[in-house]
């Protein structure tokens, strides 16, 4: 069923903004967490029926990459999904998966799949990464819990990318108009910066400029339990959660 849906989507005319087209296709699809934590040893999981914020982003971006390559083949979609999800673009066990968004962002920028979206005027909040959540809450992860020998390796991977890491758009600035934030485009990948101990980012989605001229978020929502294009402004969405302090943005490159 999933492979047939992928092929059908890849054969469609997306009308220009392929990211938003594919993301909107999944509106109403069920939110389900931990859908990648199902196989040991690690295998490439394809699941279009149940999505969390990360798998929605990966699914949509893999579709867009494959569509831009002119392919309608499921095998090519799977190759692109693997490129996005794993360090260096190759699956090599559980530890090769890009578990933190900092890892995901830097690896996919390095691979040339994305570029960061920012400007010097508004993206002024310094980002410091202090990831340790996985290694400190090891027993909460079903697959790693069965492999205590991985814990030191995960902690080392965390430390390797901790530290100063550029700048993000602070929460107050997300209320600016489309004219003021012209650098942000419909379909840009939005990563929400968090102050929660041990984590860098807490949620992902896609930027949508609403009819009100303000930013909104298309995301797989744990609140609504489905994929939604939220009517609440992104600035208000962030303001309601004390740990959400701003956003980082990426844009998918042309192949």
Please explain how this structure is put together.
It contains nine helices and ten strands. The protein is globular, with a radius of gyration of 18 Å. Strands 3, 4, 5, 6, 7, 8, 9 and 10 form an eight-stranded antiparallel sheet that branches. A two-stranded parallel sheet has the order 1-2. The chain has 255 residues and is of the alpha+beta class. The longest helix is centred in the first third of the chain and has 16 residues, at 53-68. The model has no long low-confidence stretch (mean pLDDT 97). It starts with a helix and ends with a strand.
Order of helices and strands: HHEEHHHEEHHHEEEEEHE
Mean pLDDT: 97
Question: How many H/I helices?
Answer: 9
Shape: globular
Helical proportion? 25-40%
> Termini, distance in Å?
27 Å
- Helix/sheet category: alpha+beta
Task: Please mark out the parts with pLDDT under 50 across 5 or more consecutive residues, or reply none.
Answer: none
In terms of DSSP E residues, the strand content is: 15-25%
Q: What summary fits the major beta sheet? A: 8 strands, antiparallel
The Rg value, from CA coordinates, equals 18 Å
Number of strands: 10
